[in-house]
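Ticket #4471: structure output looks truncated?

Reporter: J.K.
Steps to reproduce: submitted the chain below (287 residues) through the standard prediction queue, then opened the result file.
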Amino acid sequence: MISHLDKTLEALLRQKVPLSPESYDVSFDIPIKDWTRKLSGNKRTVNLYLYDIRENQELRTNEWQLKRNPDSTVTREKPSIRIDLSYLITAWSPAQTEPVVEEHHMLSQILATLFKYPTIPPDVLQGNLATIVPPPEIPALVAQPNGFKDQRQGPFWNTTDQHWKPAIQYIVTIPLDLQEAITGAMVTTRIHKYQQEGHPETEEKLIQIGGRVVEAADPATGIAGAEVIILELGRTTRSDINGYYTFVKLQGGTYTVKASIEGRKTERTVQAPAPGGNYNIMLSKGK
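Returned output as attached by the reporter:
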């Protein structure tokens, strides 16, 4: 994931910073003196050195995430760990006259662009980051007052055997997928029983059912915004963005459920609770 973020940051610089992409190189190497000797004598260089990796504990959660699948199963996914990746961004100019002025100009353009995007724009995401649906929100912090405080500028540049250079601290928080998921059947029926203590004759049973309005030609495709009515009760709801609907506090029995949208409609009889837990409604085209 880190290498994909590196490619994303390079794309961010080349696509969003108002500098000609062909006029500079991008490097992720540690900026030691031997590295500077290998720099192009014709091109400027932007260096993004990753100097620190640590968990963002403020964003930690232990709650597993539930995701409904098209096949009516549910996947429990372990939440991603959020990792802070800290970069030191410097500019290097080969100019024979006033190289520092050119470097300051590059840093100014980069700084303004990074402040413009408090989260990484989705259109520059690269690698696995570009395949996540929906696109992840990747926040970034720019030039914070306490940035680089643990490493300290002086010891860092002394270690690299370089003169001090102005640098931008840039902290990006990315999700680290732990790749642990459990898939099982979706719960479509819940039964709640109530009774006075010691009086079983007062027992009352209320049922919650949940189904999906789907395309008859493709049952894996849900239909959003369909009106769903229990005709005997006159109770109405609408399917959500993935086609799912639910009714609560039903008495046990047989019901006629009608689904309709944009002139298409159908009815089916359901038993509450249904032995197989299937309350899906299939809508045909043009009906």
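Triage note (M.O.): checked the attachment and the full token line is present. The chain has two domains: 2-58+82-175, 187-283.
Status: closed, working as intended.
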